[in-house]
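User: Hey, quick favor. My workstation is busy. Could you predict this chain's structure for me?
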Amino acid sequence: MNRVKVDLPDQFLFKTEIPVRITDLNYGGHVGNDAMLSLVHEARVQFFMSEGFKSELDIMGLGVIMADVAMQFKGEGFYGNVFEVYVTVGGLSSSGFDLYYKFIDQESRREILKVKTGMVLFDYKNRKIAALPEELKKRWQLPHPESRLISNE
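Assistant: No problem, here it is.
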């Protein structure tokens, strides 16, 4: 069986902490895959807010749509765990970008999840894909300026 593999960058632009809620657990007693995707969404919203954006519907006047997602599970999460979540930007294109996420259990330091989401900019008023603003290209250009990087070790 071929497995999904998510290759993460070495350093990230943003770090947050997200506690596991009782509602995140599935019948197996650990965080379910659907809940993990919800936690990815939470991390993404917090990242955008840290970048000065009010919501996913107002990234310099445009919204974002998740075009694709790849999730590589590395461990289990349980009620009471706190995940350190690292987020960064890569794969800039004419109308979108990739976001990379790394989830680590704060206490055990175990890697729990690696994720890549492909984000497309969308003009909700005109109902069409929009171009990546030049300001975002400059802000998120690779390699990222050293002053913005967070080590995930």
